[in-house]
UniProtKB/TrEMBL annotation:
Belongs to the BolA/IbaG family. It holds the Pfam family BolA. The lineage of its organism: Bacteria, Pseudomonadati, Pseudomonadota, Betaproteobacteria, Burkholderiales. It comes from the Bacteria. This is BolA family transcriptional regulator. Gene3D superfamilies: BolA-like. Transmembrane segments: none annotated.
Length: 80
């Protein structure tokens, strides 16, 4: 799997205003900005992303995914 494939999977299951994925093929880091994260705690946000990956996590196709999950407002504040 490459970064573009992983981005496509996440985008297919979660509407993202911004998404950036980087990694080495097994260990990944993603910055994900979605309005769906509004009002959710970090663990619920991560669970939502993991749900989009489904079997890819269970079969070890995606071995490790670290992520920064932000709402559009949080993202805008970081960019200012």
């Amino acid at each position: 799997m490459n970064a573009q494939e992983l981005e496509s999977i996440i985008r297919a299951g979660l509407p993202c205003e911004h998404l950036h994925v980087e990694g080495d093929g097994r260990h990944w880091f993603a910055t994900i900005v979605s309005a769906e994260f509004e009002g959710k705690r970090p663990i619920a946000r991560h669970q939502r992303v993991y749900a989009t990956l489904g079997e890819k996590m269970a079969t070890d196709e995606v071995h490790a995914l670290s992520m920064k999950t932000l709402t559009p407002g949080e993202w805008a504040a970081q960019q200012a």
